Amino acid sequence: MSTTKRSFDTAFKLKVVKAAEDHNKHYAAKLFNVNRRRVQEWCAQKEKLQSLTQSGRPSDAKRRRLQGGGRKCINEDIDNAVLHWLQERREAGVRVTGKALKQYALQQHHKNGSQSFKASCGWFYKFKKRHNISFRRSTHVAQKSRAITDDRVDSFLRFVTTQRKRENYDLKDIGNMDVTPVWIEMPGKSTLELKGKKEVRMMSTGHEKERITVVLSALADGTKLAPFVLLPGIRPLPKEDIPSGIQVYMCGSRVKSWANEGTTIE
Question: Among 58, 143, 161, 266, which one has the highest count of C-beta atoms within 10 angstroms of its own C-beta?
Fold first, then answer.
């Protein structure tokens, strides 16, 4: 008899069970070239195996392991506590990342004396599978195609090269400046959530639309300029309140921190 490890689907196991009932377990094991101990296990699981084939789902007949099979989790109490923590935060609308969940699980295991627990990617994958959890997005963000952006980049590069040759600009006189918003609160786009949930909400403090503007610039010779931070407001900030390595400019408006012609000249 072969000693190579093999796996068998539900339909095959039921064939072995039928042969064992028609004759005996020893005959079925020899006929199908399986271990007699496996035949005994499958005979004891006959009702569960039959329920899978009667479910009407073709995938169940091809299953190679009953529900609950495989290696058990290290500590079911801690596993359930981590699940309860996730559900509480999601009910409150708080975003839960994979890193945050693994850190919480690590803390709980270490707190209970399980210092060998690593909260690995493998554990995280099995945790999601055990509890029917997946990453869900709160919104969909469309992106422009790569072909459109590549054509625009090439066109702009040809324009800059032509202007430099015509005007004889030095590299230190050519700069690339980009304006990017920095949101006061960034709740994120995805969170861990139970599968099948129709509503995936995120809790926030109500400041997710408030932002400041940061201008990042670099020269063609490789020089990086200090970040230029635009803040809403009229009165300038005291110099001692401004961190070193950046420049701060008040936009003259109490609610807006947009870049415009005046801020560009500044």
Answer: 266
